[in-house]
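Subject: for your reference before the review

Hello V.,

The reviewers asked for a structural picture of the protein, and I figured it would be easier to keep everything in one thread rather than splitting it across files. Below is the amino acid sequence we used in the manuscript, unchanged from the supplementary table.
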Amino acid sequence: MAVSKMEKVSIILEKTQLENVLQTLQGLQAIEVRDLSQKSASNRWIETYFSDAFNEKQESKEEELHYLLIKIEEASLFIQRNSVNKKKNTLRRQEISLKELEQTFNETQFSPLLEKILTLKKEWEALQEKKEALLKKENWLENWRYLDISPNEWLSSETQLTLGIIREASRVDFIDMLREKTETHVEELFHHPTETYIGLLNLKTQQPLVEEILTQFHFMKVDYPYNHAPKKEQALVKEELAFLSAKEKELFTQINNNHSLIRELQWAEEVVLAHIEREKIKHQLLQAKHLTIVQGWIASEDKQPLTEFLSQELGKQAVYISFEAPTKEEITTEIPTKLNNHPLIRPFEMLTEMYSLPKYEEIDPTPWMAPFYFVFFGMMVADIGYGLVMLLGTLLFQKLQVLPKGTARFVKFFQILSIPTMLWGLVYSSFFGMALPTEVFGISLPFPLLSTTDDMETILILSVVFGFIQILVGLFIAGKEHIKKKEYLSAISNGFSWQGILIGLALVAIGGLLLKSQAVLLTGSIIAGLSALSILVIPIIQSPSKLKGAAKGAYNLYGVTGYIGDLVSYTRLMALGISGGSIASAFNLLVAFMPPVARFTIGILLILVLHALNLFLSLLGAYVHGARLQYVEYFGKFYSGGGRPFRPLKTAEKYMNIESKKKNQQEEF
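And here is what came back from the structure prediction:
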């Protein structure tokens, strides 16, 4: 249970076997491919033996595959948006091997199917575009429907016909001026709240004067683009719209008939995404005339599965495989971090990832953090009913469908946390905010073990004790890590001495306040004093400047105030546990005060909604505050992080889970 030991794997193969090897590696999901085109100390052998390997641009189908992917996504989205059953017939997530995924896909049969859907899409879009244009035309003609003639058919050598729009506020003055100064006939054709559509008929000899008036009132001229009068043109539009509606129904039927093809499109999309991932890394490989070299990082536990599956898929003589330990430079600059924990601990890795992965040679904090988070989370939610809802909900999620791997880990995380939630619910005697019975069939039950109303001080002390234990563990890990690096004085000053101070102060408090024992008090004082002295002295020994070392030691010792603040932070375990239970009890009381009729009708719905809200807030609070205690009060004692995540060659897993070929017994849980 730690950071996986990584090794550098080199695979030499014939160029003709490249696709098969990459498919096998992608299905195994255990190798992060190194970029051999990059200049680094680890790649100097390439310049020596294959100096021309990366001079020529390698052939790649990545661009072609991206274009195909876009077409598949377009086709799939088109059918889903425009069919009646938008979710029906979509691909159901399942677990399948990469080889089975790609063997099931037949590109020869799929290409005509894709082109058929894209042709249907073009027809549909063209129809919609034409329909939209006709509707705009119809709306425009509606404003001129009282115009009895087409201006394009107006043929007169003496008169001028003008169409346009005037603002409603200027309409009366505009018409009055036209009639006063010219012999213009004005026809008000259509009124809007802010503007009026007008037709003007005037003598051509008066056109200059009319134009002057039009300009003065900001009259906006309109060109009538059609050959027929508006009413006749509208009739033609309606006929064409009726034809398009019939065509639209026909196309809509075809779209719905092809809705079942969504599964094939999504299947093809998953295959294409897998191919794209393989194409992306081809430029990182060393490709000579007849041979290809693949190099990457692999966890030691995956070496045997890799060798077995390559032999199984390609034959023992098809490839040459070698493994070597990473160099110090590679550990410092390049090597990724892969966590390897027991299935019970593995879901808690996401908390470590949210903070920062450990560096390759750093300790994995996950197994040291998981038990504390387990206890703290349960203490903050602390309700048997809420724990049962979490357990049953997560079990149903996992039973009813195959979840994406990230979601599955998140669900497993809360499934595990349902156990401490129920256990602490027993301690606090809380079932959906209701107290457990103290007697059943004449048998006395020990509930509550701790009362959230009468034992608040005890719960507060217990919260601080849990925090005290976690801080001591963090300091122990800090000392242990320094010893591993052979930094023995730092192990004392940064770890064990602080343990001594905290334990000593605890003994002083116990001896002086609880046991009234001078022996315990004196023992605690001696331990704390010697520990404090070591914190002051060790920096003096380590520093070339004794004065600076003394100042550093004094500053370090002042850090004891920070530990007091850390211990106070753990009181949130009590606060959140009590608040969640109190809110649940208040909800129950609220419904209990309702009249019987309301209580058993709307009251049932109300109590479900209120408890669902309280459960959500309790889980959110416990999740966030539990993580904060780990990140701030715990990790800060021994952990820095900064590792680079392990990114194996794998698939996108957009619609299905690609099951790894490695037979890892740790997966069973």
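For the response letter, the relevant points are probably these. Residues 151-225 form a domain with the Alpha-Beta Plaits fold (CATH 3.30.70.100). Residues 107-142 form the longest helix (36 residues).

Happy to draft the paragraph if you're swamped.

O.
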